[in-house]
Amino acid sequence: MVRIRMQRLGRRNRPYYRISAAEQRTRRNGPIIEALGFYDPVEKDPAKQLRINEERVKFWIAKGAQPSETMRDILAKRGLVDVKSWEADRAERRKAIEAKVAKAAAEAAKGEKKDEKK
Q: Do 112 and 75 have their domain in common?
């Protein structure tokens, strides 16, 4: 399966990402099928921070390519993927994280009660 994902480039403390279409099983910085753009999170100007070839991204999504979670967020903000399903997935992820945090807090409280008994 083809994934639309980012490859980390640049030096230490100065990340630079290439957005690419790559086979799912390849390593992060492995061979790619096609470069689709770049993302520079350190760039001050928001217009220069992200460049995507939208036509090619639409082409790959139509062919069945799946964007990674981060790329799906970026593409949804640009309107290149279904925003309603993205919002539903984000809400579901938030609920799962909140449940995990609540469970950890309950276990920590339970551990404190055991310490008080001793």
A: no
CATH of the domain at 56: 3.30.1320.10
Burial 31-67 (b: 16+ CB within 10 A, else e): ebeeebbbbbeeeeeeeeebebeeebbeebbeeebeb
58 and 111 share one domain: no
* CB contact at 8 A, 35 and 52: no
Residue indicated by tokens 């920590």? 108
Query: Which pLDDT tens digits describe the chain residue by residue (118 residues)?
Result: 999 999 999 999 999 999 999 998 988 888 989 999 999 999 899 888 999 999 999 999 999 999 998 898 889 888 888 778 778 888 888 899 999 999 988 888 877 666 565 5
Q: What is the pTM of this model?
A: 0.72
